[in-house]
């Protein structure tokens, strides 16, 4: 579809928008120059069409009545991987922010619904090459901008521990399907905690890798500096296995360094963790007006287990843990508006693989009406656009300039300790928000729990959430933070804890259904 040159009226509006000071004669002088520039656009479209990927013919279906008990499946499929490999015979759900070619993708949003990718995401290719079978796309929250599970356009995702409660978000469907035993592994995305928060609230394992360790290519971006993909599993060994398959540069993602050392994460967790030093982050506990005492107590009991397993456990103060949350908030407000909203997901000015069809599909739908955004996306759109309009990105620039200071504070603590530990989220799974709930309640339930997880998205440190002892019959997560690109030590400590407690608890009997 060629770019249509602007009409005289459209050209006048464009000039007025940027205060170009052109009168009628000036506009007439520029009109043929502007029109002439679009010849290159036409030729680029022809060149791209000659090499653009074509979606494979893969069978898929919408979830059948009765097979979507938790509201966690967006689409069902069966994409068989290699005949052999470390994941042969294992089933995987792909979070629906990540492309499986030939299978619909909505990213939880009415504004993306109807899009069918032509190319597999890098992580999907790697899972299939390892022998996995992809059995469907897992529901995620609207544009992945919620830490609770009530914002997806398909409806709420329900927690197998208690169907009246949230699974956490935004990787809500992935967590529910794992907790219910419907798949063996799942992928998640994490910009503010979206792998770890649902892992905590559904009693599973979630690992947010070091920023850039796992390629984000083929997943719907939110903000390049905080975008992560990671594995979600029921055991630490499966998380280690999956991370080893997913990790490493693909040459297409500018978030990644040029080279990353190859690590056998399964072998690493078998080394044990005795003698490792654990720093208990004071500022990760006791969030005023938010923390549930039982959650803090459960995590401190888990720390006693680690001490009993031979790890050295000490308290450490890290004031920048709280400051880093404010830094993240500015990055994830101004940055999201610039990239995910105004930039139609991908934005501009970075080297890497773009998805022109997704950009156009979402961009056209967004232009038709942002009224279809969830309450959380509407809130951040207004706040970020106001800040950008009033201050022209000054606060984003300050926040990004503070990231090295925040990162250095974690690095300093991690020079004393091998890992840092705190509750993944300070609360228990809340009741799912009603459709007619006030906006303030909807937004509060979506964002209140991210205070401990969001800081490591902006600093880029790896973090693993593992189940601690349930409280009032509901899951609790313990978060283990490590040095950048030392994801193995996070998993070593997580595995040592899993072994010490004899495995992680499962939802009540009858919650699960047969694997698909």
Automatic annotation (TrEMBL):
Residues 151-173 are annotated as: Disordered. One of its GO terms (molecular function) is catalytic activity. Gene3D superfamilies: Amidase signature (AS) domain, Glu-tRNAGln amidotransferase C subunit, N-terminal domain. PROSITE patterns: AMIDASES. Residues 79-491 form the Amidase domain. This is Amidase. It comes from Actinomycetospora cinnamomea. The lineage of its organism: Bacteria, Bacillati, Actinomycetota, Actinomycetes, Pseudonocardiales.
């Amino acid at each position: 579809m060629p770019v249509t040159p602007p009409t005289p009226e459209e050209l006048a509006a464009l000039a007025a928008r940027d205060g170009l000071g052109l009168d009628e004669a000036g506009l007439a002088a520029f009109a043929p120059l502007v029109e002439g520039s679009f010849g290159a656009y036409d030729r680029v479209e022809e060149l791209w069409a000659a090499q653009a990927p074509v979606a494979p013919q893969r069978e898929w279906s919408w979830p059948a009545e009765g097979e979507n008990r938790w509201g966690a499946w967006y689409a069902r499929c069966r994409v068989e991987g290699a005949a052999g490999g470390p994941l042969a015979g294992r089933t995987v759900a792909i979070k629906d922010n990540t492309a499986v070619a030939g299978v619909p993708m909505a990213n939880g949003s009415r504004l993306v619904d109807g899009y069918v990718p032509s190319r597999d995401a890098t992580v999907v290719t790697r899972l299939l090459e390892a022998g996995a079978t992809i059995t469907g796309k897992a529901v995620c929250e609207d544009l992945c901008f919620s830490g609770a599970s009530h914002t997806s356009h398909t409806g709420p995702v329900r927690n197998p521990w208690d169907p009246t409660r949230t699974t956490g978000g935004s990787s809500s469907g992935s967590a529910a399907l794992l907790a219910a035993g419907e798949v063996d592994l799942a992928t998640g995305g994490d910009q503010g905690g979206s792998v770890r928060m649902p892992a905590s609230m559904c009693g599973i394992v979630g690992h947010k890798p070091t920023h850039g360790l796992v390629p984000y290519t083929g997943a719907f971006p939110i903000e390049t500096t905080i975008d992560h993909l990671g594995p979600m599993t029921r055991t630490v060994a499966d998380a280690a296995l999956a991370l080893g398959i997913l990790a490493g540069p693909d040459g297409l993602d500018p978030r990644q360094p040029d080279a990353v050392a190859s690590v056998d994460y399964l072998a690493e967790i078998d080394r044990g963790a005795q003698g490792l030093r654990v720093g208990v982050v004071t500022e990760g506990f006791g969030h005023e007006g938010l923390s549930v005492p039982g959650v803090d107590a459960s995590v401190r009991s888990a720390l006693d287990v680690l001490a009993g397993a031979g790890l050295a456990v000490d308290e450490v103060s890290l004031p920048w843990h709280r400051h880093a949350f404010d830094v993240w908030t500015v990055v994830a407000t101004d940055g999201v508006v610039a990239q995910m909203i105004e930039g139609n997901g991908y934005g501009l000015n970075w080297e890497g693989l773009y998805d022109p069809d997704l950009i156009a599909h979402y961009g056209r739908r967004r232009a038709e009406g942002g009224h279809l955004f969830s309450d959380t996306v509407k809130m951040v759109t207004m706040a970020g656009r106001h800040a950008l309009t009033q201050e022209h990105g000054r606060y984003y620039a300050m926040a990004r300039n503070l990231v090295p200071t925040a990162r250095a504070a974690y690095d300093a603590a991690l020079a004393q300790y091998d890992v840092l530990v705190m509750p993944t989220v300070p609360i228990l799974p809340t009741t799912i928000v009603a459709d007619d709930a006030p906006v303030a309640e909807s937004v509060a339930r979506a964002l209140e729990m991210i205070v401990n997880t969001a800081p490591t998205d902006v600093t880029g440190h790896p973090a693993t959430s593992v189940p601690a002892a349930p409280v009032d019959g509901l899951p609790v997560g313990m978060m283990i933070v490590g040095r950048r690109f030392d994801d193995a030590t996070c998993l070593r400590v997580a595995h040592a804890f899993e072994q010490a407690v004899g495995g992680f608890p499962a939802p009540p009997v009858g919650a699960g259904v047969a694997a698909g």
